[in-house]
Amino acid sequence: MTTLSPHDSKSPVIQAAHRAKDAAAVLAPLPRAKKDEALLAIADALEARTAEIVEANAKDVAKAREAGTSDALIDRLTLTPERVRAIASDVRDVVALPDPVGEVVRGSTLPNGLDLRQVRVPLGVVGIIYEARPNVTVDAAALCLKSGNAVLLRGSASAYESNTALVRVLRDAVDGAGLPADAVQLVPGESRESVRELMRARGLVDVLIPRGGASLIQTVVNESTVPVIETGTGNCHVYIDAQADIDTAVDVLINSKAQRPSVCNAAETLLVHQDIAAEFLPRALDALADAGVTVHADARVMAYAKESRATVVEATEEDWETEYLSYDIAAAVVDSLDKAVEHIRRWSSGHTEAIVTTSQQAARRFTQLVDSTTVAVNASTRFTDGGQFGFGAEIGISTQKLHARGPMGLPELTSTKYILTGDGHIRG
Amino acid sequence: MTTLSPHDSKSPVIQAAHRAKDAAAVLAPLPRAKKDEALLAIADALEARTAEIVEANAKDVAKAREAGTSDALIDRLTLTPERVRAIASDVRDVVALPDPVGEVVRGSTLPNGLDLRQVRVPLGVVGIIYEARPNVTVDAAALCLKSGNAVLLRGSASAYESNTALVRVLRDAVDGAGLPADAVQLVPGESRESVRELMRARGLVDVLIPRGGASLIQTVVNESTVPVIETGTGNCHVYIDAQADIDTAVDVLINSKAQRPSVCNAAETLLVHQDIAAEFLPRALDALADAGVTVHADARVMAYAKESRATVVEATEEDWETEYLSYDIAAAVVDSLDKAVEHIRRWSSGHTEAIVTTSQQAARRFTQLVDSTTVAVNASTRFTDGGQFGFGAEIGISTQKLHARGPMGLPELTSTKYILTGDGHIRG
């Protein structure tokens, strides 16, 4: 009379999703020790089969070179024996993290004597759509496995050989540890249609996490019926308040912008209170120049630029919403803290905003009014990161408000269920 | 240079959403006392203006009668002075609930001395799409206001006059309490196009919660780019284990099915372990008959039906996935607990499943393997409810895994943000 989920769809993507769902049902009740065993097997296998992985990767790299891919992208794509060892070491770090599954989030005995517990359970099937870096393949699989989820991986075509080799190694290790190999799968097919099928597999896939550029994320958000966690877009602001220590302000600004400009938690806009502009901007503009940053300045910032070493261009409205991911920063003078908040509310992607201030009142007001995943007081925007936050690992940084917001660690890869225990309790 | 969100869209729905977003920014930092004041003003206003509300409602009721609407639906639509008083009293109950906003969910001092706090914040703008009952208008507005959210209400055309009057009363009260009236708005327009615009207002509306029948919910899930919380579909199961107290089993079954069959937490399928079928089913079938329940039986249940008083029809595969919401139940005999779990995994909507057993091992296995919002052991499925769980109020029961699962109270209407405080910390 009853059978498990039908595997009779002709689509390889839907078939893979069905297999993932079945695997997820096996993973869900597993104790931590079993999952850690599989993760250790994965780390060992990555090291033992490094040659096979590097060889496959060389094909992707050769193809990328032929296609005239930039050196930066080729560097992100390349796997060396050292890099494979580092990936294996990251998997061992995941072994050391606590298992979120089974945690009792809350519990109480109800007035009628029923015992109510809310416990963490895996999400089920997690789909990850990502771009060139093959290390994401292993990182994502390890985090999903540790949290009891099956994973469907959809990497970029440019890393196809690398991902295929990595997933082969992962599946063999998982299988060898006695867990279902289908806990880790590459989404079959390289066409856009296969991505579309994945995005429409509601009921089979529990969540999709796109990791990559803004256009990838927009496509997934617009076309998916599977719930999506939006990640990564970071138009981050640094606001220098009327009362601020100038040295601190310059340090936080330069670190936020220039320590690693290519990442989502790098600052993209500087806002300066008018009362401190004359004191702060000359120093800041020189420091930005020394860091190699081009300033996209509004008229009030421009007034200070001429006497500085800064490379300056006139800001247009487009600059306020641009995530440069480069040595560029938009800059404006604002009349008040509230005007800075207004600017942020209008233009920010809601990732991270920092205030530099010596005023307790200003810090309190800024943190109350600014609605972003992270509000930093006298600290660099660059700290918004799962590793920095002590989560031990990160599957991405959510910039949406539902389910998870900010850096997502293992608990963010779980849902909960309620367990209600009685002695034949019925409702009156 | 900077202005608040542009209100220059020509669509009245998008304009309303912009106003809601601005109102949400005002609500977010408000302390509990201010929000409670507005809620008390709402309760008082509902009582003071009962005549106006009942009069508007009478127009909807008259129109519904003309249209030949069923008595049951007309009853759900009708507002009497007593019902308006009850609605006002529910609002006062919300005043008594704790404010989730500002709660520190977790916090620590990082190794570098940065203080990290994760605090609850409102979601922002919540859209509710619902069907005939006008009390939802006030309930939803009160819960959203208490949790610091602006609400966009889209009720059914059949309750248009009632909802318009209620929202007028609510907005006047909110305004009188010094809060932005646009915290509570009806979505303008009665066309389907206006719902479609609401579903596409990503970036303005933070979450949509459809409350109503399966087809409404499916439409929203399929068409919305705004994140959706799926609610309410309940194909709930009661499983009677091989070892079970027969009295308890009959009581839990009858209460789960017949105490209030029209709601989502009522049971729709009975599964019986083959080893207890001969003892349990004759008693259960008679008890179901006495409760007026028709049994849609598989062949093995049918074998017992002939000697009972039960009204029985043959079950087809369709019965296993049907949410009857009536005095009907599907019933099957299963070979084992694991077969019951398989059946549930295949057919359940993931709302609530109950096991009746005296075996600790069986209870443990069932709660581990069944992945639904609520798993009840020796308790009726009817307990899955925010009020019963002690949440004090409920905006709906989420049957999805992301963000919230099971009954949603005030905390489920919030997100979080991280506040990071340092002394000029920069990343090395």
Automatic annotation (TrEMBL), chains A, B:
It holds the Pfam family Aldedh. InterPro entries: Ald_DH/histidinol_DH, Ald_DH_C, Ald_DH_N, Aldehyde_DH_dom, G-glutamylP_reductase_CS, Glu-5-SA_DH, GPR_dom. The keyword Oxidoreductase applies. Residues 9-309 form the Aldehyde dehydrogenase domain. It catalyses: L-glutamate 5-semialdehyde + phosphate + NADP(+) = L-glutamyl 5-phosphate + NADPH + H(+). Its EC number is 1.2.1.41. CDD domains: ALDH_F18-19_ProA-GPR. Pathway: Amino-acid biosynthesis; L-proline biosynthesis; L-glutamate 5-semialdehyde from L-glutamate: step 2/2. Keywords: Amino-acid biosynthesis, Cytoplasm, NADP, Oxidoreductase, Proline biosynthesis. It is found in: Cytoplasm. Its main location: cytoplasm. Belongs to the gamma-glutamyl phosphate reductase family. Catalyzes the NADPH-dependent reduction of L-glutamate 5-phosphate into L-glutamate 5-semialdehyde and phosphate. The product spontaneously undergoes cyclization to form 1-pyrroline-5-carboxylate. This is Gamma-glutamyl phosphate reductase. The lineage of its organism: Bacteria, Bacillati, Actinomycetota, Actinomycetes, Kitasatosporales. The gene is proA.
